[in-house]
What does this fold into?
Amino acid sequence: MAVHRDARRVLARPGFITTLRERIALLQDADGLYDLDEPSDMYGNGVVAALEDRTAALLGTEAAAFFPTGTMAQQVALRCWAGRTGNPTVALHGLSHPEVHERHAFDRLSGLRPVRLTDEPRPPTADEVRGFEEPFGALMLELPLREPGYLLPTWEELTEVVDAARERDAVVHFDGARLWECTTHFGRPLAEIAGLADSVYVSFYKSLKGYGGAALAGPRTLIEEANAWRHRYGGQVFQQFPTALSALAGLERELPRLPEYVAHARVVAAALREGFAAAGLPWARVHPEVPHTHEFQVWLPCDADDAGEAALRQGEETGTVLFSRAWDPVGPGIAFTEVGVEAAGLEWTGEDVRAAAADFATRLTA
It folds into this structure.
């Protein structure tokens, strides 16, 4: 983290790397986001309600509810749908966030029963939805699917999967924590993408750099019930104005730039492939080859600890941090990491990336 903070050149500067002073500075000029002479929020009114209205308008839904976490928002959404459908079974991908990162919260806390459509490192297909061997009340789709590489289906594939769920009388919920950056890949506005689903969850910190928080968006009757469950789950927080203001800042400042980040991520990905090839690495992969969002994976034939050490040395000795995230082992002599391109990455040319990749490869093989 210290090397990343001191680096002159990075591809992204995520919020968790920065200092408290830098995070607080996010709210400078906040009076342009909301009338700061209005009373502070209490239990979800004021600036929090304004954020909810702004989110619903962007996603084209009747209403939205602010939640402290996405984990809570999605549990509430799916238990509300289970009450309406009479079926607590939720069909999802085996690599989706609730299955990998939430300690089985669906079944332990919410009375939901997750079933896996597939564990393959790709989005689920319409045939898998149609052919699943038992009924389910809701289909949950993570857009993009992070674990296999921030993957998205084509627009046609997505609409076919949604149609297949409808044929089975199931509702469709989008885990859209990173839905904000999907518009470039789909070639559709946010409201049209969200409009395919019955409900949508979005995050305010993953791509928008807010302090935290999430929103559940959908029909007004669903959101009214979700508000009641939010209270029961302990999400009716007394005051949330710093987080709400940071979310409004993200919608104002980061959201319009995400298509630019996605476009430049494709430049960076191509340059990384070229740089590794020129350096003579025997096997290297950028996945997907053309990134679907502004984040993607890099796979290299090496020990994960060696890759992390090479990245650290490169940052210390050159002031350039090409790979700032952890390297994880995925097989004998194979490691992977995630790469994200944000505002700082726009300063890199393709030649800059190729040169940094070649320098990294030299340190790695040494």
About this structure: Residues 281 and 365 are 8 Å apart (CA to CA).
